[in-house]
Amino acid sequence: SAILNNLTVTIVMVSLMRKVLDAKEERKLFGAMIVIAANAGGVWTPIGDVTTTMLWMNGQLSTQHTVTDLFACSLVSLVASMAVLQSAVDTDGDTALVAPARPRSSLPAGVEPYATKLVLGVGIGALLSVPVLVDKTGLPPFMGMLSGLGALWVLTDALHADEGNSELQVPAALRKLDMSGILFFLGVLMAIGSLDAAGLLKQLAVSLSDAVPSNEIVATIIGVASALIDNVPLVAATMGMYDMGQYPQDDQLWQLIAYCAGTGG
After folding, report:
1. Average pLDDT in the 128-150 region?
2. pLDDT-derived band of residue 141, with 50, 70 and 90 as boundaries?
């Protein structure tokens, strides 16, 4: 999830788990483990969790400090959570497993296995190169991501240009975008932007700082709140609440917010 984004990894792993575990309660338990592991793994890289990505794109976090400073914290969160959940795992060997289905090829007609591995490798490489490209060139993060998309577009066109199967090319994938999810994030950011423009977020930050002078406690409150309220609007609000003149890039406050909101949510 540090590479592929925690949401993507959670969806894939839960789908695999449903094919392996049959008991409902065991699915719930291992599903919880997957969610915790994915969130802990995603929070320590700029592309692993949406809240960390938001802070990185807005300049509150840099790639190097995010990776080096949050990795140990994320590992502790993962190990501690798994230790607690481990006590609920059935160790008597009575876990109900689904009989594995006979493996069969799911590749479209005419697609060679090497092509799928090549596209997967280039896709992962494109994701990994985004933080490096942004740091080295100073380009906005979205330009790095679009550059990776462009590389995939050229590759898939080259591989499937003669097959006449447009479903294997990037335009077909773009038509399947989750527009409802994109509009959700757009609505959240526009709402937070309106509150910031009205000066309400600054007032909230001043009131919160007067009531709770410790950054650690503020971040903890955000982490607890993100378990009840979606962490995206919470992090978006904090980005407008605290001035980067007072809290510069990679300040402890931003790292704590990324960590607490990511693992708390």
Report:
1. 84
2. confident
